[in-house]
Amino acid sequence: MDSGMAQEPPASLEGREAARAGLSPREIVIRYGFLLLLAGLIVFFSLATRGFASPQAAVFILQSVSITGILALGVTATLVVGGFDLSIGSIATSAMMAAAYAMVVMEQNALVAVLICLAIGALVGLINGLIICYMRVPDLLATLGMMFLLIGLQRIPTEGRSIAAGMTLPDGSTAEGTFSPAFLALGRHRFDVIIPDLVPSSVVVLIVLAVVIWFFLEYTRFGRMMYAVGSNPRAAEFAGAPVKAYKIWAYVISGVFASIGGILLAARLGRGDIASGNNLLLDAVAAALIGFAVLGAAKPNAFGTAVGALFVGVLLQGLTMMNVPYYTQDFIKGAVLVIALVFTFSLLGRNGR
Amino acid sequence: MAESPVFRIAGLAKSFGSNEVLRGISLELRAGEVTALLGANGAGKSTLVKIMSGVYQADSGEMTLGERPFAPATPAEAMRAGVVTVHQNIDDGVVGSLDVATNLVLDRLSGKGASIFFNPRRVRRTALEVAGRMGLDLDLTADVTELPLADRQMVAIARAMAHEPKVMILDEPTSSLSAHEAARLFELIDRLRARGVAILYISHRMSDIRRLADRIVSLRDGQIVGLFESRPLDYEGAVNAMLGRTLRQGSVVSQAATHPIFRAEGLQLVPGARPFSLTLGAGEVVAVTGLVGVGKTRLAEMLFGIHRPVAGTMELAGSPYTPRNPADAIRQGVFLVAKDRARTGIVPDFNIYQNMSLPFLPRFSPLSLINRRAERAAAKEQIGSLRIVCRSERDDLATLSGGNQQKVMVARWLSQPSRMLILDEPFQGVDIAARHDIAAKLRESAADRATLIFLTELDEALETADRILVMSEHTIVGEHRNAQIDMDRLLAEVAGAGRPTLSEVPAHG
After folding, report:
1. Is B206 in the same domain as B275?
2. Do both B235 and B336 map to the same domain?
3. CB distance B350–A227 less than 8 Å?
4. Global pTM?
5. pLDDT (tens digit, 9 = 90+) per residue, A161-180?
6. C or N: which end of chain A has fewer Cβ atoms within 10 Å?
């Protein structure tokens, strides 16, 4: 034993030197590859198009990704506990319809509409969590079922019609209510930052929520325990963690974030549009999964999710400004996602998963 | 009985890297005989089985089946040649979503020369034939998933019998069966024996071996260390050989407990098991030893609030102790270093200090905000005190050796004071140096708490504990102070000879 111990210190010194000598090229690629790619894209589009490198374009990109970004931050919470939430897109559209219904049909004010939406998000998340944890339904299937349920449910009150001020109700009367200005401001108000009327409120909400969820996951006990639950639920349980409670909370967070996305969507559109929000789910999931590849995390993380959302926004905006046809957008998003996933799971496959 | 051997192994060796798992095994199996193979974890049993069933190839040595050399490259080839293996995990042997009849003839359906059309009537006819031959009384149309474990096991064995095997290997077939179910399995094995099949039966359960074995082979460290075939069979000798004769006593100075901390009365682990009492005191290290499957992990996890006892009362520091879950146990100062650290201990995405602080995070996070500096300082202290070899407390656990990973797990639970520290097989996959470090640290820090260590290896118990308890059939059957131990009595207790009524006592998995 003694001779064994005597040999150890040099070995660990060697290790320390290797760590100080810096990262191998492969490690640099793993760690900074996606950020470098993002920077490269921005430089490329700035040179190749006119007007890409302007505050207005930057804000436009942020605005275009704000709602999917918020949904993606929510789904990140479920990915952290080793789950998945496919119902976020339909929670967002349900919240949008509920906000419109509350104001236009029930003639409520903005605050009530917002509270109803948040309550719907929390309730659906809670139900998702209970079904997954206590009824033992696999997460993908439970939230897939919830997605169908909500898509159907949001059409029932208006018999499948979109909701707008002055619409005809099922009983033949005309809706008296309107979207309150305070509510619309959530989607349309712009704050003065350097240039007047520059930053839309949805971007502010995105940035605030991103910082909050990032801080929550990285620096609070709750966030740390959520990562433990996702990484090895049995070990977390043996360390005294109430595993099911953490999982359920993750789905509640995801539901609430999705409903915030829905509120912003309703405020931006100014009506409850049955046909909107089709792409929300896939775009949000893509952003969260691209986030795995950022900084070599190989796990869900808030910063990566935000960068993932931004990456998709930059790419699409740049290509649009270069007159690439709109119908190639989905293909490009899909390709980016596949590349990011290959990157994450082949280069970073250190856990053998 | 005294026929010529059906299956012969000569000088079989196998290494994985520098690790010699089998070092020249020679063994013969005879038709119509049950040969029991005894061996501790890591003795090389499963490697031997995998070579015989074509999963691995031997590095050297040869096998003969009948008169012909036998060197299967795949499990399918071994099966076609007549060597059939029924694995421990029953569900590997059956297809859950299909009915019994289809399962019974599955290999014919998918084998070479099988018709591409599925003929339900022919399947049923063949299945009836197979079931009849095996005396299997089951509803052939039932889904296999609806069957109890034992019936699934029977289907797996009957399915294997469809190949007309000459040799059948049963790898711990009773590990998840109840006593009644096991009895039915034994009848089936008797029938196979009568049909002239050579059977290699692997089990840790001495009661199985007493019931079935015609001869016993003990394996230790990749070598056959004992062959017992003269009647009556020397069961204790076989266990002794399996555990090794190198047992040394007196390496610890046995300490007596200062005051009692934990007391249990009339504790019953599983239905049908004999209740037992248990008292643990501060300052003593108590080892619980016994073969695999006698309920050691069950007891450890019960004390930690994962299972409930069937009957009995527990007391911790004078007040009733009924933990509802691990969190409850931890709150009351009962910690468990769980068995199988990869499954129940390590959080793979976390580094060393995050793994160590996991159960005690509230102490490092006032207002829920984690104080990483305090976390890292606490981890550094443990790294120093347990001599964990790493670059820093921020290293990933995956970069550490098995011994150092285990040290991190022990350090986690030593980092805060406990009333009772339970360790379940803490030396599994740990090198000798790390084992000594951990044992020394446990003894040195034991003063104010009760320490209970579950160890299958008797050597480890002798090396670590002040007091040794022996478990068998889900109850405690013996107690020894670790000074001038009556080794013969202890080994007899481990082998399950402590109680004459043993074979009638139901065993539960």
Report:
1. no
2. no
3. yes
4. 0.78
5. 899 888 888 888 888 888 99
6. C
Look at residue B506 and tell me if it is in a domain.
Answer: no
Considering only CB atoms, A4 lies closest to which of B304, B345, B433, namely: B433
CB A68 within 8 A of CB A290: no
> What pLDDT score does A348 carry?
62
* Domain boundary pick from B198, B213, B243: B243
Residues B216 and B287 reside in one and the same domain: no
Structure tokens at B301: 């996890």
Domain that holds residue B165: 5-243
Q: Give yes or no for a contact between A268 and A77, defined as CB atoms under 8 angstroms apart.
A: no
Q: Tell whether ipTM is more than 0.90.
A: no
Q: Does domain A27-351 have CATH number 1.10.1660?
A: no
Q: How many CB pairs under 8 A join A and B?
A: 89
* Closest by Cβ to A232, choosing from B346, B389, B432: B346
Nearest to A231 among B348, B362, B432 (CB): B348
Strand B198-202 to B167-171 pairing: parallel
Is B253 among the domain residues? no
Domain coordinates in residue numbering, chain A: 27-351
Domain CATH for B178: 3.40.50.300
User: Which residues on B lie below 8 Å from A221 (Cβ)?
Assistant: 361-362, 365, 368-370
pLDDT higher than threshold 80 for residue B255: no
Q: How far is B432 from chain A (nearest CA, A)?
A: 8
Domain boundary among B212, B243, B274: B243
- Residues A95-110 have pLDDT tens digits of 999 999 999 999 999 9
- pLDDT digit string, tens, across residues B459-485: 788 888 999 999 988 999 999 988 878
